[in-house]
Write a structure and sequence with these properties.
This protein is α/β, with parallel strands linked by helices and 360 residues long. It starts with a helix and ends with a helix. The chain has helices spanning 2-7, 25-30, 51-58, 63-68, 70-84, 97-102, 123-128, 133-136, 140-153, 166-175, 183-191, 193-217, 234-251, 268-271, 287-294, 313-327, 345-356, and strands spanning 89-90, 107-109, 113-115, 159-164, 221-226, 257-261, 278-281, 299-304, 331-335. The protein contains 17 helices and nine strands. It is globular. Residues 43-48, 57, 63, 90, 92, 94-96, 108, 113-114, 162, 178, 225, 227, 338 line the site of coproporphyrinogen III.
C-alpha cells in the first residue's frame, strides 16, 4: 500500500498540494464556526488501546523504530481513524524528538517511559545545544510521515501535527526522565533563570521551525502539549511558560493552533489571550469555569476524565452527553488527557459514538 504511493511519485520534499477534506468538522470548530455536531478525537488515540498497534509494535525493535519509519508511523496514525471513526488523525510521533535533534538523545524504556542518557546540568550544556532550522531539518522523518499520511488519508479527516511546549521539554531535558515533582527542573528555574531563558528560547526557535515543517508537509492543525504546565506556580508560568507559548502562537499563522496546558487552570485567562484558536482543557476545570476564564472567542477542547472510560456504558454515555451540553458552541470533544493504554476498546468506541449521536 505504502509502496504504491512511493512508486507513484506522489511524494516529494516539495509542498503537498492541499487536498479537499471530506470531513473538516475539526477545522471549522477550531475556527469557531457553527458545526452540525462537535468533532471528536482522543489524545493518544494511536497506541496501545488498539490491538492492531500492539501487534505491529510487537514485531519491532522498539518505539523509536515506529516513530522514525514514515511508513509505519503512517500506518499507526490511520489505525484509530479506521477503528474508532474519529474526526481527526494525529501524527504518530513523540514530543521528545525535539530535544533529540537539539543534542539530547532519548530512549523509550518499555514499562518505564522516556529516559535521556545525557541531561542539562550546567549553563555550558545549554550553550552546546543545536537550535532552530539546523535542528528542525533533522526531523525529516516526521515530515515524510506527515506527507505519506496525508496522501493515504486522501482527505478523510484532518491531520493534526504537534510538539511539546518549551517548558515541558525543558523539564524532561533537565530531569532526564519522567518525575512526580520535576524538582530538578523547577530548581533550575530558581537557580539559573538566565540560562533557563536561553534554553527555553532555543527550544522555542527549534519548535517554530519544526511546526512550520509539519505544516509544509501537510499538517492541518497543530497542537502544543504543555503537559507539565500545572507544576509551576502562576508567577513562574507567567515568566517561563506563557511568553514562549506566545512566541509560538504568533509565529504560526498558516493553520489553527491548539494549546493544551495541563493543570494550568490558574492561567486560563492568560492562555485565552494567546494568538491561538483552541484551548485544551483537563478534567480539573469545569466547562463553565473554562469558558468564563478563556472568554468567548476561542474554541475549547476536552475534557472527560480518562478514567471515566472504565465505567459502565450508561455512565460513559451520560457523562459524555453532559460534557458536550456543558461546553456548548465552539467545542471539540476529547478527553482531559491521553487515553490510558489499558482502556477497553469498546468503551473508547462508546465515548466516540456518544459524541457523534449527541442531539440526534
Ligand atoms: O495518538 C497520539 O496522541 C499520537 C502519539 C503521541 C505519543 N506521544 C506516542 C507515544 C503523542 C501526541 C505523544 C505526546 C507526548 N509524549 C506527551 C504529551 C502528551 C501527554 O501525554 O502529556 C508527552 C509528555 C510525551 C512523553 C512520553 N512518551 C511519555 C511520558 C511516554 C511514556 C508513557 C506512556 O504513555 O507509555 C511516552 C511513550 C509513548 N509516546 C508511547 C506512545 C504510543 C508508548 C510507547 C510504547 O508504545 O511503548
Amino acid at each position: 500500500m505504502m509502496n504504491d504511493i512511493m512508486e507513484n511519485e506522489q511524494l516529494s520534499t516539495e509542498e503537498v498540494q492541499p487536498l479537499a477534506l471530506k470531513n473538516d468538522l475539526l477545522l471549522r470548530a477550531a475556527r469557531g464556526e457553527q458545526v452540525e455536531r462537535p468533532p471528536v478525537w482522543l489524545m493518544r488515540q494511536a497506541g496501545r488501546i488498539l490491538p492492531q498497534y500492539r501487534e505491529l509494535r510487537g514485531k519491532l525493535s522498539g518505539f523509536k523504530e515506529l516513530v522514525e519509519t514514515p511508513e509505519l508511523a503512517c500506518e499507526v496514525t490511520i489505525q484509530p481513524v479506521d477503528e474508532l471513526g474519529v474526526d481527526a488523525a494525529i501524527i504518530f510521533s513523540d514530543i521528545l524528538v525535539v530535544p533529540e535533534v537539539m543534542g539530547l538523545r532519548y530512549e523509550m524504556i518499555p514499562g518505564k517511559g522516556p529516559m535521556f542518557p545525557m541531561t542539562i546540568q550546567l549553563e555550558e550544556d545549554v550553550d552546546k545545544l543545536i537550535a532552530g532550522e539546523k535542528a528542525a531539518l533533522q526531523l525529516d522523518y516526521v515530515y515524510k510521515a506527515i506527507q505519506l499520511t496525508k496522501a493515504e488519508l486522501n482527505g478523510r479527516v484532518p491531520l493534526i501535527g504537534f510538539c511539546g511546549a518549551p517548558w515541558t521539554l525543558m523539564a524532561y531535558m533537565i530531569e532526564g526522565s519522567g518525575s512526580k515533582t520535576f524538582s530538578k527542573a523547577r530548581r533550575f528555574l530558581y537557580k539559573k533563570p538566565i540560562s533557563s531563558h536561553v534554553l527555553l528560547q532555543k527550544i522555542t526557535d527549534t519548535t517554530v521551525d519544526y511546526l512550520k515543517g509539519q505544516i509544509k508537509a501537510g499538517a492541518d492543525l497543530v497542537q502544543v502539549f504543555d503537559s507539565w504546565a500545572g507544576i509551576l506556580s502562576p508567577e513562574q508560568y507567567k515568566v517561563f511558560g506563557l511568553p514562549y507559548l506566545k512566541q509560538i502562537c504568533e509565529s504560526i499563522t498558516e493553520v489553527p493552533v491548539t494549546v493544551f496546558a495541563k493543570n494550568a487552570w490558574f492561567a486560563l485567562d492568560e492562555l485565552g489571550k494567546l494568538d491561538c484558536n483552541v484551548i485544551g482543557i483537563d478534567w480539573n476545570t469545569t466547562a463553565q469555569n473554562a469558558r468564563e476564564m478563556v472568554g468567548t472567542t476561542k474554541a475549547l477542547q476536552g475534557n472527560l476524565d480518562p478514567c471515566l472510560l472504565y465505567a459502565p456504558e450508561d455512565v460513559i454515555c451520560s457523562a459524555t452527553h453532559k460534557m458536550v451540553r456543558d461546553f456548548g458552541d465552539k467545542y471539540i470533544a476529547n478527553l482531559g488527557h491521553g487515553v490510558y493504554p489499558d482502556t477497553p476498546l469498546d468503551n473508547v468506541k462508546i465515548f466516540v459514538d456518544a459524541v457523534k449521536s449527541f442531539g440526534a
